[in-house]
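TASK: fixed-backbone design
INPUT:
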């Protein structure tokens, strides 16, 4: 098998499964593990995957600025938003950070449920403007238009003044082994601080985030309390999260 053929097969496996193991590929291709590792290095250098111990993971997708992300897979995100919102309990104080799926969660929060929402995302605050029983606290800081979020030292200071029952986190990458990851270091810092100030962690994730990894770690996967996934989530992926003690719900 030629190098290009091997690498195309690896890319297909990454697309289908989210991860590959060097040892398994070496057996399948009948080549040495050094050859496979060289293939993975080349694919990683081209931005097609991220090397991890023993193999590689698909790279978390960069879907562009928040306005573009809101228009992408909107129906699926609305389903995820409704399923995640149903897990919020009356009287809770909830962190909701920026993200197009999190915006759908905020929009779906039941209007007959009293709660407090703390957010660094103006769009999330606006989505709750007509909620009659929600007290909304908008965190300050420097507004990043592309991220749709307030970030920086001022935001961090304000986060640390709040103790929340629940953190609804928007993730870039999510993998049972590599954990919860983000593409931007500033966003990751705020997310880590919100997690430290929260009792539970809920993530509603579209399928393109699963089995992928971004450069900046937010949390170990086992720190997730509840995970809401799309109906077509792979059973092996679901099992890997449930094995860590995560409660998994399927939207729709």
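OUTPUT:
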């Amino acid at each position: 098998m030629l190098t290009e053929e091997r690498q195309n097969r690896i890319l297909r496996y990454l697309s289908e499964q989210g991860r590959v193991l060097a040892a398994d590929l070496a057996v399948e291709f009948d080549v040495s593990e050094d050859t496979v590792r060289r293939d993975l290095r080349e694919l990683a250098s081209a931005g097609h995957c991220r090397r991890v111990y023993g193999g590689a993971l698909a790279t978390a997708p960069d879907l562009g600025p928040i306005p573009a992300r809101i228009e992408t897979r909107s129906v699926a995100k609305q389903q995820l938003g409704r399923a995640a919102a149903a897990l919020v309990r009356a009287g809770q104080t909830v962190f909701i950070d920026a993200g197009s799926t999190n915006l759908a969660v905020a929009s779906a929060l039941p209007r007959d449920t009293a709660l407090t929402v703390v957010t660094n995302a103006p769009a999330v605050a606006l989505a709750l403007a007509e909620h009659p029983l929600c007290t909304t606290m908008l965190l300050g800081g420097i507004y990043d238009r592309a991220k749709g979020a307030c970030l920086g030292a001022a935001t961090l200071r304000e986060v640390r003044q709040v103790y929340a029952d629940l953190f609804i986190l928007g993730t870039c990458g999510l993998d049972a082994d590599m954990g919860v990851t983000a593409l931007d270091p500033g966003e990751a810092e705020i997310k880590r601080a919100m997690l430290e100030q929260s009792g539970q962690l809920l993530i509603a994730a579209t399928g393109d985030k699963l089995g992928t990894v971004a450069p900046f770690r937010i949390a170990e996967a086992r720190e997730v309390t509840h995970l809401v996934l799309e109906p077509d989530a792979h059973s092996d992926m679901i099992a890997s999260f449930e094995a860590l003690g995560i409660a998994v719900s399927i939207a729709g």
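COMMENT: The chain has a mean pLDDT of 91.
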